[in-house]
Amino acid sequence: MRTVHPSRRSLVRPGPVRSDPVRRSPVRLGPVLGFLVALSIPGLPASGQELPEAPAADTLPAGYAAPLVYLDCNRCDGTHIRQEITFVNHVRDPGAADVHVLVTDQPTGAGGRMYTLEFLGRGRFLGVDNTLTYHSLQSNTQAQERDGVTRTLELGLVPYAARTPLGPLLAVHLQTPDDLAPTEVEDPWRQWTFELYLGGNLEQETTQGAWNARYGFYANRVTEEWKIRLRPYFNNNVRSITREGEEDIRVSQRRHGFDSYLIRSVGEHWGVGIFGDYITTQRDNLRHQVTLTPAVEYSFFPYSEATRRQVTLAYRVGLEASEYFEETIFERMEEDRLLHSLDGSVEVLQPWGSISSGLRGVQYLHDTDFYRITFNGSVSFRLGLGLSVNVGGSYQRINDQLGLPRGDASLEDILLERRRLATSYRTSGSIALSYTFGSIFTNVVNPRF
């Protein structure tokens, strides 16, 4: 299989054009000149003239009108971006911006991450919209990924700055022109990526201590046609309590398992696959549980729009085989059951805020009175300049605890969470309101202390 590496991006800085004869080659600069013409930049000096040095920020005349930019990004390093991109004014609220930059991201097949930057013109730039993407490799450091996002953001802001009096002060510098041609290479891994992880933590006091360890392995392959995962995982938790004159209490719990799926793309709206899972956990009285479920999913919007909006409906049906540590309340040590599930999800990310919700129903087919319905959702709205509200919550209707052990749970079992308790529901909720006022500008960065 052959893949194509994207060309390196250029950097845009206010300042003079370089006079290096290699970098001024008409073959290499042709696309850049075409880009500048397409932008119809007013006041651009004639070819061959030196652009003037950009004045210092504190010497710009009144009415210089640099773009007001609001960055809407959860994973971005805002401090670094404000330090690096100085030819715009950064504002803290989208209501005050002429350019709203909405940044979304999703993992890629090779273990990296793809950032989608949507530039939405407002006010004087209404209708001037654009979209750029940046692909970060799995091997990139945090600094490299941060610089890549910043560089892409910088490029996307050029068309807006070019439509202001800053236009004549912008220069385009094309980096490493010898590397611009796409290069085809063989991928010996055939788009498989692998990850080993190991972690843990330890806490110790005079009379009590705790430690846990987690380790596992990922094997992933993602192409346009296929999505594959194989993931074994292991979790061990130990807690000990020393009581003077009495026997020490030592609690050990483990939760091990294996997740896997094989998914096939069928056009822009359909996907089919099969999921295979295994788990063993003492708290849920599961010595072994294996689940195998074929599935089909429909997306109401094309999958290519998933970073901005996604509404999906998925159906699964399959077999669940369980073996228990203790006899259950239904007097069983093992059982095999058919089950099916229906999952709906909504993900919307827009300049006004975001909506995320999911509804899942699981039902056993041997007795339809055993089921579980789960709903979770969160909504974030910007109500006005500086005012926003966030509401979130979840609810579960539980009637499928087939593995509950017989007998009463002891107080120790309850307090140490060694045993799951019977319940008919589980719910949680949150609400937050925030209001920010004062200066809209966030250009200045002061990292002292």
Structural class determined from secondary elements: mainly beta
Q: How would the global form be characterised? A: globular
> What is the strand content?
over 45%
What is the radius of gyration? 28 Å
Helical content band? 10-25%
> Strand order across the biggest sheet?
10-11-12-13-14-15-16-17-18-19-20-21
Which fold name fills CATH's third level, the topology of the largest domain? Rossmann fold
Strand tally: 21
Total domain modules: 2
**C-alpha end-to-end distance:** 51 Å
Describe the sheet with the most strands. Answer: 12 strands, antiparallel
Q: What is the string of SSEs from the N terminus onward?
A: EEHEHEEEEHEEEEEEEEEEEEEHE
User: On the 0-100 scale, what is the average pLDDT?
Assistant: 80
CATH class of the largest domain: Alpha Beta
Structure annotation, total helices: 4
